[in-house]
Design brief:
The strands form 4 sheets. Strands 1-2-3-9-6-4 form a 6-stranded mixed β-sheet. It has a 3-stranded antiparallel β-sheet with strand order 5-13-10. The protein has a two-stranded antiparallel ribbon with strand order 7-8. The chain has a single domain, classed as Cytochrome P450 (Cytochrome p450, Orthogonal Bundle). The termini are far apart. The protein is built from 16 helices and 13 strands. The chain is α+β, with helices and mostly antiparallel strands. Helix 10 runs antiparallel to helix 11.
Length: about 400
């Protein structure tokens, strides 16, 4: 038992940390397996082993108190909690089973042709331009077409999806300037979201309507269905847009790795896994202890928040050889890019399919990706990505 655990002044929501988290990740890992974060008055870990232990023990480290710094059981919140991400068994198990069936491999196979068609159009467009922004002119239009269409959202109002995701993921952090900025247009965004997921507004046969089919089958209550569909609208957009942007950035900085993928586009899936490890779009979240417990020899009281640094764990040298090297040939099993345990990202397979399809199309038709101007980060309390990513490509 450790009587005097290490403490740190690292603030994972300060401007310097969000701009370049990697020096802070190293400090967090080197401070110890479990560290007291004075800035947040909570525990934190940046090590893979301890993070895996937390995620594997949902009974001790719960999600129902919220996966952000606030405690949903004692504090108010601007939205109704998620029935998946912010829920515990047994209710979580039942609801996740419904959504898992909707996102079954057979359903996803039926989406592939539409994804491939859109990827061709988007690659056509960037090759015609030669120079483009990797986020606003490739990642965003691709995802904002294929994902809402798969869910069955109407075309009107899709521009609210990214602002809504920003509200959700910024809400995992403190009520800082970043959160206040994303909430400036909250009323209009919430008004659209509150109707977009209703049964009568969803296209027949799509993923959203299949959630409502579970109501007809008696598997979930009617009032649960719209909240489950709402989970698609946050989890399936911002994170994948950021992941695609991060992938383009990684390949622009590591042209040798792009040449590997260009030579063998079948490596697109494994390349995406390395992007998730090396430049995680989802950087952190929290769990809350349900009882007095011990982690890494440190006693933790019940109702304590534990900060989990995904980005730090994914570059933990105790888990990964040469973790600062981007290598699409690397075995990546065990990375935390999609979380882990019973709350692993429910939409990870559709995100993998979307990104694999786009990266494969790019790899077949693009011989080189080059960064041609200064990038600009997209500041978010939880996500890591770009607002500006100026690129040039050459046709193969």
């Amino acid at each position: 038992m450790i009587d005097s655990p290490p403490e740190s002044d690292i603030d994972p929501f300060c401007h310097a940390y969000l701009t370049d988290p990697y020096p802070f990740h190293q400090q967090l890992r080197e401070a110890g397996p479990l560290v007291r974060l004075r800035s947040l008055d909570c525990w934190g870990t940046g090590r893979h082993k301890e993070m895996n232990e937390v995620l594997a023990d949902a009974a001790t480290y719960c999600s129902s108190a919220g996966v952000g710094i606030g405690n949903l059981k004692t504090e108010g919140h601007w939205r109704q909690p998620s029935l998946l991400l912010e829920a515990d068994p047994p209710l979580h198990t039942q609801r996740r089973a419904v959504v898992s069936k909707v996102l079954s491999p057979a359903n996803l196979r039926r989406l592939r042709e539409d994804f491939e068609r859109e990827a061709v159009l988007r690659v056509d467009a960037v090759l015609e331009r030669g120079r483009f922004d990797g986020v606003s002119e490739l990642a965003e239009p691709y995802i904002l077409n294929v994902f809402p269409e798969a869910v069955g959202l109407t075309e009107h109002g899709r521009e609210h999806l990214l602002p809504y995701g920003a509200m959700v993921f910024n809400g995992f952090g403190p009520r800082n300037a970043i959160f206040d900025e994303c909430m400036r247009n909250a009323e209009a965004v919430q008004a659209w979201i509150s109707t977009a997921y209703l049964r009568e507004n969803l296209k027949p046969g799509k993923l959203g309507q299949q959630v409502y089919d579970a109501v007809d089958a008696g598997q979930i209550a009617l009032e649960e269905a719209p909240i489950l569909v709402r989970s698609f609208l946050s989890a399936g957009v911002d994170t994948t847009v950021n992941a695609i942007g991060n992938a383009l950035w990684c390949f622009a900085l590591h042209p040798g790795e792009w040449q590997k993928l260009h030579a063998n586009p079948a490596l697109a899936r494994s390349a995406f896994e390395e992007v998730l490890r090396y430049e995680s779009p989802f950087q952190s979240y929290f769990r809350t202890t349900t009882r007095d417990t011990t982690l890494a020899g440190v006693p933790i009281a019940a109702n304590s928040k534990v900060f989990l640094s995904v980005g730090a764990a994914n570059r933990d040298p105790l888990r990964w050889p040469d973790p600062e090297r981007f290598d699409i040939s690397r075995p990546t099993a065990g990375h935390m890019g999609f979380g882990g345990g019973i709350h692993g990202c429910i939409g990870q397979m559709i995100a993998r399919l979307e990104t694999e399809v786009l990266l494969s199309e790019l790899a077949r038709r693009v011989s080189n990706i080059e960064l041609v101007g200064p990038t600009r980060p997209r500041y978010n309390n939880t996500l890591r990505g770009f607002d500006a990513l100026p690129l040039a490509v050459e046709a193969a």
